[in-house]
């Protein structure tokens, strides 16, 4: 190197640096102006078919408006229960690595003390709000957290700049009462401080929306985009609902769950959500045939669904308030909405699991705080209403099973994405893509112009699980995954793996077989026919994929699980076949009139 | 996890809950002092039946068997009264309706001043049976089945009632104190039930009003004289509230005006009385309800004012064939 050439290089370097320094703020500001806001709307336990745009009779015009302006995806996977899904949403990392290898409420003895099974979002992962905040986003959260209550675990410590949060997994929509005697009061935080009481006129869905609007307004106009995580408690049990929302569907559900599932599937086919000829999952064998129920019993169960429908409509109403506000302040057009439910609809009996034993501490607690259970007070403070497995099956139409289980009804959910990122035709439906909740992390980092780091604050972070939806939303690809990509799940010992259209599943008896089952989802999304015996090679191949997943993702199967004795508490499983047994269904035979006679004397 | 047994128990709970509603709404019937107790006009499932048995102990200066409440100034009348009856609910043009008959019986005695003489009179036996037809005009449709009962809330409910007493009760034309009144009489009224808050056992609150007009026929043989009575206007009011699923209470009030009696053209005073009372009710089981009440006139210091107070205990048995059948199955 000659001195001259060295001088020239220095001059060029200086010039480029000066130009770069002068232009950087401008380009960054321009980029910041162009970057869209993000609103994630999470419905808690909302099933695949509960929105009108996915076939529901429940009126959800505001959520449907997002579907009309955006794109719907029909093969979107979450996990089978709340906190595992939320942990993957916010960390992008598999549950067995991010701390939610099991729900904290059900950590098995052999999982205690094991990394990845802390029961809370662990400190080895970096969160989406942390990375977005670092990239210049405002980060706001309202609603349910369910990933840790300690000061180092709350939203303010995990990247949210503003929050109004229910830290627990469930509780009253009206007040701070929680469900278990050992955990009597729900914890809430606001901007990182634990609340002593709730605001006046508190109602979860309304207050969360009010707070989010206030957060957005507080910084509106400072040029920074925002990330808003609207993690609604609705429609999780207990179904608490203002009175004026309870009677919008009086009598509409007396027809029963079978008829409603058929109606929803028909609409799904008409909409293009499901292909023609899609089979409907069979009614679970322990759920009664509604045709055989007395009208009063149908009305009793129907009223539960009426309240649930009102709860979803109330949720939609408040989503509409947020949408309207963003339109009013001119941010709607520059906002990406991502809407989904966190797992399948709830068909398990949480009340029975926690407080179902007379004489227990939790039973006494429920007697004092959760016994307002006359039908006319369903929705009031102190009532505990859940709609049961029969309506949960409706919510997951056309799939089988529900929350906590790994049939499609437990893990497959409706997904709507709208906003500036979407270049596909408005209102289109993508039935080809296989999407996963962990994809949201890379997708939004891409939107923010940043990327997932290998290390964060000096610590190595686990590899992300997901794949960006960027090319799919742009209309350049049909799916972020190929047929060779693998998705896998494990919670409570239930486990599944999907590759292409093949799905391998192991579940506790009697919902599962206590053994591997194999399904072809292309022809059997309702998982009606176990093909394990017919396809031994595929079974081996898929089992190997599971083994590989378990080995590489720190899976420790639990030695205790909430469903370990389920087989002893449910009736023996039998196939449910329409028309059997005929004894209850045969109509009165009416003889020909000309053959009628009085008895002879 | 729900299972079939739990679902069956859920259905059973529906029926039992409705049975409770049925019995809770059973007929707290009495006509003592021409005042109905709280919750009398609450609606229940069509096809329900009730038998009330009511015991009253009443003192005052008027005959409690006579709804006209003709005051006998200075009199001291004691009555021991029982009322038996039967009521049946049904549907009339999709509206809730009730037909009832009530038969008073008992003893009455008192010191009565007739002219300048003060005599003690006693009567015993049966009073005039009264028939009542009640049809709801404004409010939810009749509870024709368990589905309707499940969804029922009164909101604002207004009925039309027609009462008619048949003069076949014990009557002695030599006495001024009788159980029967020896004349036709009846009432036209518009009972109102106005719900406040949730309609759930343990939490129900209602304001009840009964504006009504009593109309009296002529007693042509009142101790050999002819007695006529002007129409009497009445407003009963009850503010009733559940304390628990089974225990409830009520603040009761009543106002009467009019009803001026004339005996052979000699006019008496018209009534203008105010009474207040308290009622406590307790649901013993799904079929049996017990109430205890006390009421008394309050603006009664003048000699011609009506003075009356009384204790009341009632036991009402209510049933419905469907509920009874379900209970029989449940007992197997």
Morphology of chain B: elongated
Unreliable spans of chain A are 1-7, 10-32
Beta-strand fraction estimate of chain A: 5-15%
Number of helices of chain A: 16
Subunit arrangement of the protein:
heterodimer
Distance between the termini of chain A: 133 Å
Q: How many extended strands of chain B? A: 18
Report helical residue fraction of chain B: 10-25%
Describe the structure.
The complex is a heterodimer of chains A (601) and B (332). With 601 residues, chain A is of the alpha/beta class. Chain A is built from 16 helices and 19 strands. Chain A has helices at residues 3-34, 61-69, 82-91, 95-98, 128-134, 204-219, 257-271, 295-328, 350-355, 361-369, 388-395, 408-411, 440-448, 470-473, 536-552, 566-569; strands at 37-43, 71-77, 138-144, 162-166, 177-180, 183-185, 188-190, 193-194, 226-231, 335-341, 412-418, 428-430, 435-436, 455-456, 459-460, 486-491, 494-499, 502-506, 516-520. Mean pLDDT of chain A is 94; it is low at 1-7 and 10-32. In chain B, the strands form 2 sheets. In chain B, strands 1, 2, 3, 4, 5, 6, 7, 8, 9, 12, 13, 16, 17 and 18 form a 14-stranded antiparallel beta sheet that branches. A 4-stranded antiparallel beta sheet of chain B has the order 10-11-14-15, with no helix packed on it. In chain B, 11% of the residues lie in helices and 52% in strands. In chain B, helix 1 (4-24) packs across helix 3. Chain B is elongated and about 65 Å long. Chain B has one domain: Beta Barrel (Porin), CATH 2.40.160. Chain B is mainly beta. The interface between A and B is medium-sized, with 34 and 25 residues.
